[in-house]
Write a structure and sequence with these properties.
Oligomer: single chain
Radius of gyration: 15 Å
Order of helices and strands: EEEEHEEEEH
Largest sheet: 4 strands, antiparallel
Number of helices: 2
Distance between the termini: 30 Å
Mean pLDDT: 83
Strand order of the largest sheet: 1-2-3-4
Strand content: over 45%
């Protein structure tokens, strides 16, 4: 699983398996965010499409290569909006705006090493996404 974790932050994105055979299927996923020891958001289910994971990976890669300084990600299922801003060469701000329930925003900061590790973990997870054990007939 792709995770950024320290004493005040927990951010996890874990693609697990395809839910259907389409060209751009939704992928069953876990998305968890906790800040200062409190669970802020946790979702388990068909949250993101394959192309959306690829978009996140592509944007993070371009940030790490200094090609862009920020990006906004809004999934097809608009449960949340994620923005990542490269504030300095080594400091990244992650902003999550949640559309479910009472609208709320959470932000946290990570360093470049944490972003690189997250990117590599998520890329590896995407290479290992499996089909479900059976498909409906």
């Amino acid at each position: 699983m792709a995770i950024i974790e320290n004493e005040s932050l927990f951010f996890e994105l874990f693609p697990r398996k395809y839910s259907e055979k389409d060209e751009d299927p939704f992928i069953s996923s876990t998305l968890g965010i906790g800040i200062d020891g409190k669970g802020v958001f946790h979702f388990y289910g068909e949250l993101l499409m394959k192309s959306e994971f690829e978009e996140i990976l592509s944007n993070i890669y371009m940030m790490l290569k200094d090609e862009i300084n920020n990006f906004i990600f809004i999934p097809v299922e608009p449960i949340f909006k994620m923005q990542v801003i490269k504030e300095t060469l080594t400091l990244y701000c992650w902003i999550f705006k949640f559309q479910t329930g009472k609208p709320r925003e959470h932000r946290f900061y990570t360093n470049k090493t944490e972003v690189q590790t997250f990117y590599l973990q998520l890329k590896e997870e995407m290479n290992n996404v499996l089909p479900p054990p059976f498909l409906p007939k």
